[in-house]
Amino acid sequence: KAGVTQTPRYLIKTRGQQVTLSCSPISGHRSVSWYQQTPGQGLQFLFEYFSETQRNKGNFPGRFSGRQFSNSRSEMNVSTLELGDSALYLCASSLLQGFSRSGANVLTFGAGSRLTVL
Amino acid sequence: TQLLEQSPQFLSIQEGENLTVYCNSSSVFSSLQWYRQEPGEGPVLLVTVVTGGEVKKLKRLTFQFGDARKDSSLHITAAQPGDTGLYLCAAATGTASKLTFGTGTRLQVTL
């Protein structure tokens, strides 16, 4: 079956602009999480959506937002871009929400969208 | 804020050598996962450990979860060039969906 698809793969924006990134999860997966990866901070959790509702949010400013559609596809938006927003934005989908003690839930990551802010 | 410290940060070894990567924290985790990420790709799950003291083997890779569920290690036996990549540990607390990732260990295996 198809994996997690993220578009666009690469994009360049200038400071002050906004950007929208898209994520199509694995068919049947209802949970979509977003992470930001930078050389300095590593992988940091942005937010998670399950059944069109934001279930958990990381420690990022309000310029970072997201949403999930009824078909489980998700988008994230970053407004008023700053140089520090340059990063690889990774989307991951999973069948379940959360991680039980059984460890049954598995995250499958997409290849990411690499954003460069000039 | 929970921190997961990985060591070493970088490791360059020759094919056939053994290595161990460590993942340490002061927090207790309900489960811990190890991922490998290759350039241009997202992280790929290698294993999930949930029980203190648990040991899991995946071919030449051995994963261990500390007794107190605060630390973990990944041991690779007879490393091969295909093992090259960024190794990340990631932990969950309770049933929250948020994963906290470690600082990463970049491994290069040369012929």
Supply the key terms.
heterodimer, A: 118 residues, mainly beta, seven-stranded mixed beta sheet, four-stranded antiparallel beta sheet, 11 strands, 51% strand, globular, B: 111 residues, six-stranded mixed beta sheet, five-stranded antiparallel beta sheet, 0% helix
What class do helices, strands and sheet pairing of chain B give?
Answer: mainly beta
User: How would you describe the oligomerization state of the chains in this entry?
Assistant: heterodimer
The beta-strand count of chain A equals 11
| Strand elements of chain B, count | 11
Please estimate the helix content of chain A. under 10%
Tally of helical runs of chain B: 0
Q: What structural class do you assign from the helix and strand content of chain A?
A: mainly beta
Order of helices and strands of chain B: EEEEEEEEEEE
Biggest sheet features of chain A = 7 strands, mixed
Distance, first to last CA of chain A: 37 Å
Explain what this protein looks like in three dimensions.
- Chain A has 118 residues and is mostly beta strands.
- Helices cover 0% and strands 51% of the residues of chain A.
- In chain A, the strands form two sheets. In chain A, strands 2, 4, 5, 6, 9, 10 and 11 form a seven-stranded mixed beta sheet that branches.
- In chain A, a hairpin with a 2-residue loop joins strand 5 and strand 6.
- Chain A is globular and about 40 Å long.
- The mean pLDDT of chain A is 92.
- With 111 residues, chain B is mainly β.
- Chain B is built from no helices and eleven strands.
- In chain B, the strands form two sheets. In chain B, strands 2, 4, 5, 9, 10 and 11 form a six-stranded mixed beta sheet that branches. A five-stranded antiparallel beta sheet of chain B has the order 1-3-8-7-6, with no helix packed on it.
- Chain B is globular, with a radius of gyration of 13 Å.
- The N and C termini of chain B lie far apart (40 Å).
- The interface between A and B is medium-sized, with 30 and 26 residues.
